[in-house]
Amino acid sequence: MFLYIIGLVAFWFVLRWYRELARVPNKGEKYVYITGCDSGFGNLLARHLDKLGFCVIAACYTEKGEDELKKVSSERLNTVHLDVISTDSVNKATAFIKTLVGEKGLWAVVNNAGVSVPSGPCDWMTVDDYKSMLDVNLIGVIGVTLSVLPLIKKARGRVVNVASVFGRISAFGGPYCVSKYGVEAFNDSLRMNMSAFGVKVLCLEPGFFKTSVTDLNLLRKNVKTLWDNLSEEVKDQYGHDYPERANVTLEKNVATLLDGDLMKVVSCMEHAISALHPRTRYSPGWDAKFLWLPMSYLPTWIADKMLLKDMAKPTGSIR
């Protein structure tokens, strides 16, 4: 009986692999709109899809990002300035895209832009800290998607949302996990709403990869900035050596998990865009597949114990 189960599981994986080989036709006629193309996943995806023959619309936050991307791309690739938290900027980009794609519509939007700081214990944060990250990571995703959704419905295309494995499990405090849980919820509701229109809505849940948002210097600076703004009472509660211990934890947990092969994520993005039968969810990264996702299915008390084991803990006291 056990062998039959193994055989069925193996057959299912082979069947899925074979089914996922098929790609959509006429790539040269399909426009793909990608946010956050200055660096990291977005930049690599724009260049990769351009080489595959797609018509790429790469949204960058800076002129430097636009200029450098144009230098290494074909004439098919168009760039556009985009600040996802600015309604005016989003609308200007949408107007440009409408003119560009015409009656063909937009094949795909990839919501890749995002930020990772401020992050830290929840009681270090203010409401404005939460708002600033939610504006980029969640409201930005919703705003960009809704702005081009009529064009995607016209093409019966794709919406690809970059969430995180931390949209499944909260491994640390602050607004990052909150924003990514929100992306997951938006993705799931949109997927159900759009199924009747032939629009596929896909989600990526990467683990730790070596990009600008996981840069250790940025994360250390984030800890220092937050700590410097705390009251003496809160500092006493955590212990005045807490920032040093938190940085040791960063080195131990983040640096050791970082994966430098960004193409693992880009390949999943490309599959979500170009496969005839894409997956509903992708989990690039060994830590996502074998650590964080399995942990998210454990009973809460077990998962909490595993997470707390490696965290920097307060050593002060409540007055």
Please explain how this structure is put together.
The structure is a single chain. By secondary structure, this protein is an alpha/beta fold. The chain has a single domain, classed as NAD(P)-binding Rossmann-like Domain (Rossmann fold, 3-Layer(aba) Sandwich), CATH 3.40.50.720. It is 54% helix and 9% strand. The chain has helices at residues 2-19, 40-52, 63-71, 87-101, 127-155, 175-194, 216-228, 232-238, 242-255, 263-274, 286-296, 300-309; strands spanning 31-34, 55-60, 78-81, 108-111, 158-162, 200-204, 281-282. A 7-stranded parallel beta sheet has the order 3-2-1-4-5-6-7, sandwiched between helices. Strand 1, helix 2 and strand 2 form a beta-alpha-beta unit. Helix 2 crosses helix 10 (263-274), helix 4 (87-101) runs parallel beside helix 5 and helix 7 (216-228) runs antiparallel to helix 9 (242-255). Pfam families: adh_short. GO terms for molecular function: oxidoreductase activity. Belongs to the short-chain dehydrogenases/reductases (SDR) family. Keywords: Oxidoreductase. It comes from Salmo salar (Atlantic salmon).
